[in-house]
Automatic annotation (TrEMBL):
GO terms (BP aspect): sodium ion transmembrane transport
Primary localization: membrane
UniProt subcellular location: Membrane
Species the sequence originates in: Helobdella robusta (Californian leech)
Membrane topology: Multi-pass membrane protein
Pfam families: ASC
Family assignment from sequence similarity: Belongs to the amiloride-sensitive sodium channel (TC 1.A.6) family.
One Gene Ontology cellular component annotation held by this UniProt entry: plasma membrane
GO MF annotation list: ligand-gated sodium channel activity
Taxonomic lineage of the native organism: Eukaryota, Metazoa, Spiralia, Lophotrochozoa, Annelida
Record protein name field: Uncharacterized protein
Length: 531
């Protein structure tokens, strides 16, 4: 078909150069000047190299799916969060089952354990028992009742609360205070507001009595940690009204302090897969009962509890759980001595609470649950940096005593009788101000037992953090076209020219082949006629 392919190829290349407009190529082929030909050759090679490099960078960037986070303000008023508070030093001797009795019982039951049968080292078992004898182990043996009226174990008394609107006028009788159970603090409180007024509340101030009068020595083991260490004060958490509180992330506030938390409501939105490596979860609630807002951390903890419940028939005290899970576990926390069959029939029988503890310790969070729980596509959070100051100042303490302590019905109020004597001396003129202040400085009862918390919105708007794609398809096409035009002068019309050239060549080849076939047939006809 092509008797001389080199001649054919040269002719087609000349046609391509004449037909398709690619800068510099025609100069190389047509120019008779060696310098001009060489200059254009070097230029085309360099530009082609830069074109390939920039194109690869552009493709890599686009297919890595980058995104930017855009911050904007909303005109809507922020929604006041839910506040959860717990006493860092809760009451231990409760429900006719004291902490000392619990520790003694654990030591007695575990004194003759068969570690070979348990398939666990003695050091590992000692670590498990050490955790069990901490307050979180003791409280796990008390009734898990979220809502109770019995105040005998209270260590948090809200003696005063002030609620303000955006004009800093008081709103009265609007807050809802609810007791909740927590494995590390036993009884905590949440302060919330009805849905219809949440956007009207701008600030809340609380004065809290801690009742830190103990007449016993702490019998358990001690260890540093988020839930193991103990101090005088409160654990405070600001969170979304629909979110289950995670007290591990709360702020510790020491007694004798006034703490002010400046809050900022943030609405976070994320892009789905492929911008997020594993995607994001586009749902509002953690389960079908719509009992709590979805979050990655809550999903992981519920997943761990689900596996723990299946394998160990109890719930771990270190993670949050649903009411359904608590019911399925028969309100049993792993390590519950009082509910397990702890009296062995013979020396070879392992106590049930030990088996449950070992089982719960074997659950691996990262391997089983972390990959299943994704970040939320829509998430609400509250940034709440805090500042503290010593409180109340000595000159204010007699007024404080008269306002909150004198003639009140809170437990152990008689412990503050020294302030009553100083108040009488001040009113009767028996002592001057300097003498009274000097004596007040030596008294720490108010500072050891009271805390003031102030929660206030820093701004009257919501901050929205929205993820947006950094390179859309339109921007990618524009950038790619600009790169081609910059380095080689190639435009979209150039591609049409190339398509046109290819089409014409195909048609030309087809026509040449057809002419050759017709010529062959005509030759055969002539030969037959001659015969």
């Amino acid at each position: 078909m092509f008797p001389n392919f080199s001649i054919f190829a040269k002719r087609k290349c000349e046609q391509f150069i004449d037909t398709v407009n690619i800068r510099g190529v025609d100069k190389i082929v047509k120019s008779q000047n060696v310098f001009i030909t060489g200059s254009w050759t070097v230029g085309v090679i360099l530009c082609s190299g830069f074109l390939l490099w920039q194109t690869s960078v552009l493709f890599n960037r686009y297919f890595s799916y980058p995104y930017n986070t855009v911050v904007r303000k909303s005109e809507n008023k922020p929604i006041f969060p839910k506040i959860t508070i717990c006493n860092l030093n809760p009451k231990y001797n409760q429900h006719n089952y004291s902490y000392t009795e619990f520790v003694n019982q654990v030591e007695k039951i575990t004194s003759k354990l068969d570690y070979e049968k348990l398939n666990i080292t003695k050091d590992k078992m000692a670590d498990i028992l050490n955790k069990l004898q901490k307050p979180i182990g003791y409280f796990s043996n008390l009734p898990v009742v979220p809502y109770v009226n019995d105040s005998s174990y209270d260590r948090v008394f809200i003696v005063d609360q002030s609620v303000f609107d955006w004009n800093f006028k008081k709103l009265s009788g609007k807050e809802v205070i609810t007791p909740i159970w927590h494995p590390a603090y036993y009884r905590c409180y949440t302060i919330s507001f009805p849905t219809e007024i949440r956007s009207s509340v701008s600030a809340v101030s609380l004065v809290i009595y801690l009742n830190n009068f103990g007449d016993y020595i702490y019998p358990g083991t001690y260890g540093a940690g988020f839930t193991y260490s103990r101090a005088n004060g409160l654990k405070v958490l600001v969170h979304d009204p629909g979110e289950d509180p995670d007290m591990k992330t709360g702020v510790s506030v020491g007694s004798g302090c006034e703490m002010s938390l400046k809050m900022q409501m943030v609405n976070r939105s994320r892009l789905p897969y492929p911008y997020q490596k594993n995607g994001c979860k586009d749902k509002n609630h953690i389960n079908l009962t719509r009992s709590g807002f979805y979050s990655k951390s809550l999903c992981v903890e519920h997943c761990v509890q689900r596996i723990t419940l299946q394998k160990c028939r109890c719930l771990s005290s270190g993670y949050r759980f649903t009411s359904e899970q608590l019911k399925k576990a028969n309100e049993t926390i792993c390590g519950n001595v009082t509910k397990s069959n702890f009296q062995p029939v013979n020396n070879n029988e392992t106590p049930q609470f030990i088996s449950q503890l070992i089982c719960s310790e074997s659950i691996k969070v990262d391997d089983l649950c972390a990959s299943k729980c994704l970040d939320s596509c829509q998430e609400i959070s509250y940034h709440s940096p805090g500042q503290t100051a010593p409180w109340p100042e000595e000159s204010q303490q007699l007024a404080f005593y008269k306002r909150y302590i004198y003639n009140s019905l809170y437990p152990n109020i008689d412990k503050f009788d020294k302030y009553k004597e100083l108040q009488a001396s001040f009113v009767g003129g028996l002592k001057n101000d300097s003498q009274i202040i000097r004596e007040l400085k030596s008294l720490d009862l108010i500072r050891e037992n009271f805390v003031q918390l102030n929660f206030i919105f820093e701004n009257d708007y919501i901050l929205h953090y929205n993820d947006v794609e950094a390179m859309s398809l339109t921007l990618f096409i524009s950038s790619f076209g600009g790169t081609l035009s910059l380095w080689m002068g190639i435009t979209a019309m150039t591609f049409i020219e190339i398509i046109e050239f290819i089409y014409l060549q195909v048609v030309s080849i087809f026509l040449e082949k057809k002419v050759e076939n017709n010529s062959g047939k005509d030759g055969e006809v002539i030969e037959k006629d001659e015969e």
